[in-house]
Amino acid sequence: MSGLLKEQDKREKTYKKGDGDTTATMGVKAAKIAIERAGIDKNDIDLILFATLSPDYYFPGSGVLVQELLEIPTCPAMDIRNQCSGFIYAISTADQFVKSGMYKNILVIGSENHSGVWI
Hints:
The chain has 4 helices and 3 strands, in the order ααβαβαβ. Helix 2 (23-38) crosses helix 3 (62-70). The chain has a 3-stranded parallel β-sheet with strand order 2-1-3, with helices on both faces. 40% of the residues lie in helices and 12% in strands.
């Protein structure tokens, strides 16, 4: 009986790091869908705003990684790191840029990947 109890008491700690996606690659997947649904070309994007609490790196930001992965090198990009409210701030910032006439087509991405963070 004691052998059975010992066997049942064995515990392992397992940390799953996800399926290999990063915050930026998940953002790229979502961006491609959004661009297709909007019926625009990726080169029509004037600015990328990337909202996240869990960037791939602290520097550079995930926005420029998306810019590189989407292959739109002349498009400026910036991260907005305001935790849970980051996407709302990104939408608000995009709205003001469009209203000011500075940009016309802004790609706003909100992406989080906590499965590989702080392990």
